[in-house]
Amino acid sequence: MYSYEWDKKTRGYKLTTQTGKFVASEVRPVFAQELLLLKADEYFNFDPEELKPLMWAKQNTYFYNGEECAKAQFDENKNLHLVVTTDFDKRKLQPVDLLEMIARNKNIMDSLVADTLKRIKEMYDEFQNKCDVTYIGFSGGKDSMVLLDLCHQVLPLTVPVVFSDTDMELPDSYETWAMVQKRYSGRPFVKVNAEKMQEFRGCQGPRCHCGDGRCGSCPRYRRQRCQACLHPRTGQAARRAPHGGASRTRHRSGSSL
After folding, report:
1. Of the CATH numbers 3.60.21.10, 3.40.50.620, 2.40.50.100, 3.40.50.2300, which one belongs to the domain with range 105-197?
2. Single pTM value for the model
3. pLDDT digits over 162-184, tens only?
4. What does each C-alpha distance from 82 to 19, 62, 73, 105 come to in angstroms?
5. Given Cys at both, which of 10, 37, 45, 239 links 101, Cβ 3.0 to 4.6 Å?
6. pLDDT, the chain, mean
7. Alpha helices, DSSP H only, in the chain?
């Protein structure tokens, strides 16, 4: 486990290996766009075009250079606004020195990345023959970007990346989806909506052999497997458990890394 401490030199934070203090919520970067939405330019001086983080936040509490400077709260009309600490009113905000912050965290990050790559490969080797399909789930957010980059380093290029399109994604998510297809060329990319998802083998599970169409291992149909179908991997009959319980032949239909 890792904790962190604020780093006034970079206006960021430095990872530590101390485990005595439990971190209940992760710290996230705050960019100019978010501050503008909160009308923070009424309280702080900052460049609205700045691309680097200007603050950090834990839930609704904002920090600048390691000190709490504001909270986001709803007023009586349910409008979200900032309540700024007096000492920070009209403070000039300087962006986080990202390059220096990365350099100061390099040793721990290198170790963390190596451990994560090893774990991803171990999981793939363990489950690839137990699943009908293995894929990399992608949402377009920062976390899935990191996961995709790590998976791309250790998983075969045959493992696809799957993006579930709800038709309500932010424009940035679609732009990111287009970008990663170019960045990780050679790996298959699949964008699915609600209708196509049911056609995806990872949801359907094994093919139905009797024409019923409900004999797969999808949890939705777990209680409706027919007795005539055979499991495609084991060749065993998918027998029903007594009183309509789950099939005795257990298997997984898909795995998402």
Report:
1. 3.40.50.620
2. 0.66
3. 999 888 888 889 999 999 999 99
4. 32, 9, 6, 31
5. 10
6. 79
7. 32-37, 98-104, 106-127, 142-154, 171-183, 194-197, 201-204
